[in-house]
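Q: Joint fold for the lines below.
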Amino acid sequence: MEAAAAAGSEAPPPPAPRSPPGYPDLCGRHRLQVEVQILNWEIGFLGQEELESLEGLQSVSGYCKEVNEYVGSHADPLVPLTKKRRKSCRIWRWLWAKLCFNMSWICCFCGCPCPQRRPICTCRHVKNCCCRCRHCGCPNKNCWKASCCRPCCSLRSLSCPECSCGCVWSCSKFTETCSCLKCSSTCCMSRCLCE
Amino acid sequence: MSVAELKERHIAATATVNALRERLKQRRQALLDTDVAGYARSHGKTAICFGSTDLVCCRTLQGHTGKVYSLDWTLERNRIVSASQDGRLIVWNALTSQKTHAIKLHCAWVMTCAFAPNGQSVACGGLDSACSIFNLNSQVDRDGNIPISRILTGHKGYVSSCQFVPDQETRLITSSGDQTCVLWDVTTGQRISVFGGEFPSGHTTDVLSVSINSSNSNMFVSGSCDATARLWDTRIASRAVRTYHGHEGDVNAVKFFPDGQRFGTGSNDGTCRLFDMRTGHQLQIYSQQHGNNDNDVPIATSIAFSISGRLLFAGYSNGDCYAWDTLVAEVVLNLGSLQNSHEGRISCLGLSADGSALCTGSWDKNLKIWMETVVLKLMVERMAFH
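A: Joint structure:
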């Protein structure tokens, strides 16, 4: 019994988790070596090539000048006409509108000076003149009645809403089934562009 | 060499690199006597004036049932290919807004698409880590789908962007989440060159975008989550020609300026920048003032230059689409505030080959085409006449 008690007092400690053995950190060492190599490469690249390439470079203003010159020498269909040109166009259109009031049958034939006239007449009295019919081949070129412009409805053959998905025109008066005033057929374009 | 010695060398080398970078930065700063806007203003340039109806949405391309992620125009005939979260590519006639092809993809997680120069094939890629090529003239299979004509495998991460080399029908460049860009031979499906990855001077994290120089198709630029853009020569894959620092966040979009000597970038830091390709100079920052909270700054997701370079269109995560006057660095128009604008994030945009139309794609599932009003009317009249 005493032996058993002695044995119990000298019982081995309960098992406990142990730290893993200290294996050499091969992956970390290799990774460090690669990183040092890359850094040394970059030191060489930055020192020799990048810094040297800055020698003899002109200041930024020289390159800004190139940008300005390039932009100034190329037309751009997304840039609107200048305000200055627009003002002169508006003055002429106002003047012609005054004249056309009494001479509407010739307003778009005698040469509306609006530079945007051809092929679209921006004369305010377009509904009373045949500048659109002229392009549509209306036989009666001197006719100023709106009903003469029926052939213009050939425009509706292009991209009507029912032929495509979600044709949307950015016109406040546009509706998907807007009617051409001239021939009462569905048309998705002529009304918006007559404004 | 012991690990301790290696660590010391690492610390010393890092300090040397940082010192060299600082020296480079100061040398560049000394050359920064002005920027594009400063130069333009000193020479009397003023901002372009856009009226509220000068640029209009003339088409809304509806048909995708998921977010639109990418779009590309053909070089001619005004067709657009778009890629969407709905797992489809759609080819549109931009003039009539009719769909000419709808391609169901094997992997719905598409991130990019591109038209081949001849307009007969389209490429797309995404989370499948591959780039798929479809010939639009192929016979459809039993299910009515256009079959894949070639699949380019080899990337170890998602394909974020792809572009055909402009004057070479058979070459394509991709960018990837595996930190590399790859030049492919489309006819054989083989990788010709890998840019970055194991080689030094490559991007250190995901590459998000590529743009090939149309003036010199041997050069292309890439943008990455490591906040840099890098210039590559396809003939020298071993290292980047130049690295462009400046952005403070992921570079989501890169696009060459029309003259081929500069390129623009769009970033998570909310800014767009113009860099000089040859010298590395940052010529201009295009940035709006925002609140103090960084979370309020919308990220620039996509960019495109107008044909003259006068306008820089930039799409943002909040649905805005700014037209920047590149010369004076001012926003001259926000397409997001116009009638019929998108109702969600602008994810992609691109100019038609003749520069007369801008197409935007959005998370609202639509694409929209924008044109200048007078040009639009002329086009319509011309079409009617014929």
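Q: Anything notable?
A: Chain B is about 15% helix and 40% strand. Chain B has a mean pLDDT of 92.
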